[in-house]
Design brief:
Layout (H helix, E strand, L loop, with lengths): L9 E4 L5 E5 L2 E2 L2 E4 L12 E11 L11 E4 L2 E12 L5 E2 L4 E9 L5 H4 L2
């Protein structure tokens, strides 16, 4: 796990046989990277977040870092969350993995508004 001001607040990499659960988490980004199992097989590890409040404002300097990033078979479930901010890259789901989002709000500011 790492906490850096201008990258992800929580990073999980290569977990096996683990359940990571966060309650009432406030953060500026989460990255879940699985163990990269062969054949696209999903691991038996999950990062689970309940009652989350998160966001980034216009002063965030590294707009290339997506807010939520899942890759290499990572499994990320988030429930009862609120995101607010101007970040242009909210999700990066280009790699393999599993993402579940339920009962959340995403009132994002458009990039045009955020550059005023």
């Amino acid at each position: 796990m790492t906490g850096q001001a201008f990258n992800h607040a929580f990073v999980s990499e290569g977990l096996h046989n683990a359940l990571v659960t966060h309650f009432n988490l406030t953060n500026n980004g989460i990255r879940v990277v699985g163990p990269g199992l062969p054949g696209g097989e999903l691991p038996d590890s999950v990062v689970d977040v309940f009652a989350n409040a998160s966001g980034r404002d216009q002063s965030y300097s590294n707009r290339d870092v997506p807010f939520y990033q899942i890759d290499q078979g990572g499994r990320f479930y988030i429930r009862d969350t609120w995101y607010e901010g101007s970040h242009e890259r909210l999700l990066d789901l280009t790699g393999s993995g599993e993402f579940f989002f339920a009962n959340g709000g995403l009132p994002c500011i458009s990039s045009r508004q955020s550059r005023r």
